[in-house]
């Protein structure tokens, strides 16, 4: 799959997660798409029980025709969503795992 197609699948997966609403608190989910550097994120920002909430929920980079999942804070993970979007497992790298277990295996 070429880089343009990878970008579109990643953006669609993140957009779907951005439509979810946290079960409590006043928290906004923001998509961040940097197509120049191929960096894609889902951020959370707001308040929950008088505490500030902020940070990444998803952070993905594209490089060398591969998707690097740098951070995946979603309950079930986004890997299957990427595969369901047509991305071959061979083009997904789970960068948040130790090097010995980075590649996706069937």
Automatic annotation (TrEMBL):
Pfam families in the cross-refs: XisI (PF08869)
Domain of life: Bacteria
InterPro entries, alphabetized: XisI, XisI-like_sf
Coiled coil segments of this chain: none
Gene3D superfamilies named in the record: XisI-like
Protein name per Swiss-Prot or TrEMBL: XisI protein
């Amino acid at each position: 799959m070429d880089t343009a197609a990878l970008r579109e699948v990643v953006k669609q997966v993140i957009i779907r997660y951005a439509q979810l609403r946290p079960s409590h608190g006043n928290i906004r989910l923001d998509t961040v798409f940097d197509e120049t550097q191929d960096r894609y994120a889902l951020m959370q920002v707001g308040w929950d029980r008088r505490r500030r909430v902020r940070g990444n929920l998803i952070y993905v980079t594209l490089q060398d025709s591969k998707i690097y999942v740098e951070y995946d804070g979603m309950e079930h993970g986004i890997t299957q969503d990427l595969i369901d979007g047509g991305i071959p497992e061979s083009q997904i790298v789970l960068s948040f795992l130790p090097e010995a277990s980075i590649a996706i295996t069937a």
